């Protein structure tokens, strides 16, 4: 529905220009401007008198004119309102107007209160629009009142989006609840919480009538082992959550419970305000005792394997050192024999300068000496090659 007015405050009160007292005229104009500002959110505003039943329009929207012409500019209040309800209001909502449909019913309302408001639907061109009607008694003038009409389409759209967003959030939360043993939804500003899922182990420790902080202290004292209590107090403190959370949406820490063994605690942001500060947070815990024990066992196995590898490496290095010393000693022993043979060969070569003094037996000794030298060199080379190969393989 369009929210246009064809008659403004100034147009309705244009005769103020004829007021001779300038100060009075200025005061009236200022009052009318204030009234006009306060009523600007309403597309139709009317003044009516309970004694005479007469009404006149203060703001008359174009959309109302398209539906009823100039009928509502003035005339009888009861007749005009009855026409509006029967022709424009959704059939299911027409009975909502019964408390204000007649002057007698309005008088009864004003005996108890100074105003009355109702929400209803309007059918126009096959479309449904959402509206609000407000009836207000003029203070000091019991026989006079104002009734105004406001379009709520945008408001309903925002409410629908908010409900859909909340439903999506709750769907996410409820799916998350299944993953945890305990879960609370905490409002940071009010320090209040909503139980989503509580395990029997801590149910007796929680009192829903108290604040989150007071419950936190009690649960940590009775459910968490002493070594982890201080860390858990700091982790679950919602008063410092913005400083610690920053732009993150999830934080977690492991702790050990008195009866539950190893567990993991989570802080999950549920909602942030326009400045990015956390408004609501999802607090949850889940048991990880089996996972933690397997992890600790794996770490112990890895530690033992590392120790075994370290010991094996030490033994290999020790063996290599012993082999090195053995080869050095063996090489030294062989070198002594080889030198003796070489000296014998050198002496024999001297006889070659005087062949007339060298017998056949002497020549055979020289040849045998040279053969031994070659064989010993081959053996040493094979030993060196074998040692290098083993070192590379190890």
Whole-number total of structural domains: 3
**CATH fold descriptor of the largest domain:** Beta-Lactamase
Helix proportion: 40-55%
How many helical stretches? Answer: 12
Order of helices and strands: HHEEHEHHEEEHEEHHHHEEEHH
Tell me what the CATH architecture of the largest domain is: 2-Layer Sandwich
Total E-strand runs: 11
How much of the polypeptide forms β-strand, as a percent range?
Answer: 15-25%
Q: Can you tell me the residue ranges where pLDDT is under 50 for at least 5 consecutive residues? A: 1-13
Tell the overall outline.
Answer: elongated
Query: Span from first to last CA?
Result: 88 Å
Mean pLDDT: 80
* SS content category: alpha+beta
Radius of gyration based on Cα positions:
50 Å
Q: Mind telling me the CATH superfamily name of the largest domain? A: PAS domain
As laid out across the biggest beta sheet, the strand order is 3-2-1-6-5-4
- Mind summarizing the main beta sheet? 6 strands, antiparallel
CATH class of the largest domain: Alpha Beta
Protein name: PAS domain-containing protein
